Amino acid sequence: MDAFTAGFVSAMLFGENMSTRDDSDSFLDAGYAWSDIAPESQAVILAECGAFQLRHGADILEYGEAEAGADLYFSAAGHGCGFWEEDHGTPEGCARMDRTAKGLAGKIGAAYLGDDGKVYVSSC
């Protein structure tokens, strides 16, 4: 997995608060990993992260790959941080990436734990 996608997955698993396998309320990253993400959600994540990187390659290089991947999730999910903060890269690049990320809110902007114990993104 490339650094951008790894940053996205790490942010997603950190950013969603739901019950873990032992029924304690905890962030997903306390007990979940890539292998716990449902295959159909893995496919969506890989496709959307890949498309985002193709569209914003130059902006991502200025921003930092892992940071941009994390902020893609945070921006798409509407968290209190993300590209809009303009803490990396250029203001113009941040604005471009923020617009695209907000357009992905319904596809990858939230994660949830399915009845099967797998993690899903909002479009699955």
Report on the structure:
- The protein is mostly helical and 124 residues long.
- The protein has one domain.
- It has six helices and four strands.
- It has helices at residues 3-15, 39-55, 57-63, 65-77, 91-103, 105-108; strands at 17-19, 25-27, 111-113, 119-121.
- It has a two-stranded antiparallel ribbon with strand order 1-2.
- A hairpin with a 5-residue loop joins strand 3 (111-113) and strand 4 (119-121).
- The longest helix has 17 residues, at 39-55.
- The chain is globular.
- The mean pLDDT is 86.
Task: From the structure above, extract its key features.
two-stranded antiparallel ribbon, single chain, about 120 residues, two-stranded antiparallel sheet, 6 helices
- Low-pLDDT stretches are none
Number of folding domains? 1
Please provide the ordered H/E string of secondary-structure elements: HEEHHHHHEE
Q: Work out the strand percent.
A: 5-15%
Quick check: average pLDDT? 86
Task: Quote the distance from N terminus to C terminus.
Answer: 21 Å
Q: Strand pairing plus helix content: what structural class?
A: mainly alpha
Helicity, as a percent range: 40-55%
Number of helices: 6
Spatial order of the strands in the main sheet? Answer: 1-2
Largest sheet entry: 2 strands, antiparallel
What's the alpha carbon Rg, rounded to whole Å?
Answer: 14 Å
Summarize the topology:
Blueprint: H1 3-15, E1 17-19, E2 25-27, H2 39-55, H3 57-63, H4 65-77, H5 91-103, H6 105-108, E3 111-113, E4 119-121
Helix pairs in contact: 1-2, 1-4, 3-5, 4-5
